[in-house]
Specification:
The protein is of the alpha+beta class. It has 11 helices and 12 strands. Strand 3 and strand 4 form a beta hairpin. The protein is elongated, with a radius of gyration of 34 Å.
Length: 355
Amino acid sequence: MNKTDQELQLFFNNSIFGAFFMMLDEPVSWNDQADKSRLIDYMLHHMRITRVNQAFLDQYDAEEKDMLGKTPFDFFEHDLDQGRELLTNIFNHGKFRDVSHERKTDESKIVIEGDYDVLYEDNDPKKEVIGVFGAQQEITERIEKQEKLQKALEEKDLLLSEIHHRIKNNLSIISGLLQIQVIEAENDIVKEKLSDSMFRIQTVAKIHDIIYHEKNFSELDFSLTIENLVNSISEVLIDGKNINIHLDLDSTFLNVKQAIPFALIVNELVTNIFKHAFKGKEEGEIQISLKRHESHIHFQTEDDGVGLPENFDIDESKSLGLHMIRMLSRQIKGEPLFEDNRPGTSFTLEFPVSD
């Protein structure tokens, strides 16, 4: 027995991996000129197990006499397409790793992860194929756990998606009731308060609607949310004026925890611009930008309206909308900044992206 045979014998006797040789009755030429489909059919029936170790037998709960002489057809009779695909990949690549679904001797299911090496005459890849050497391990339990985990994740995502859908629907009902009250209210101040509340509820509903359709709870493209919000608000509040809106929005992804408060901030800002910035003016410009710089978001609005009131201080303001902007900005670890440009006002908010 030479050194190579001794090393192979040692591997067979001591390896925790199931090892086997599967040899062809007759060598075949596997190349681009060969009829590979015909060769695979030949191998299915004429490549036989000639040697196995104990770990291989344990994987299949088999004795050596049960395994010697078995062909690929015997292992994949339950799924010949899988067997053909595996053999094709092994011989096309020369070395190949794959996961296969097989059967034990008692027909119970088993999942095998194997590394396969093609054997050639005189160990020369340019010569004919004579068989395959394989080393494999059973991973049935691992695959079953993965499948259970995947199923649990899918059920969780489905449940969360349904929750967001129901929240959106409930908020839409509340918004609709407020809209009726706006129509029926006779006091202009009451109308305005109800309209503001309606917009805020619609904003949160839009976020939940996006989550439901995207089915992604960790990354929402907020540029689309801003565009949607601005269009919705302008349709209601533009009041026949010629207001040009310029959007410069990077595709920016936020999680739900940041997306909802940020959306409410945008809603308050844009609503305030339409309601207050252009009083006494028939036209105007609004610029809104959203940029991501590494781990921070930079958001800015600018208008060429009438500017801020004298002695404006966001911390001293009694406006509910400004109070919400201040509170929500700090919730996402940002600091809101209003600046009077005369004409017009700019607002800047920078905050870190949360994982």
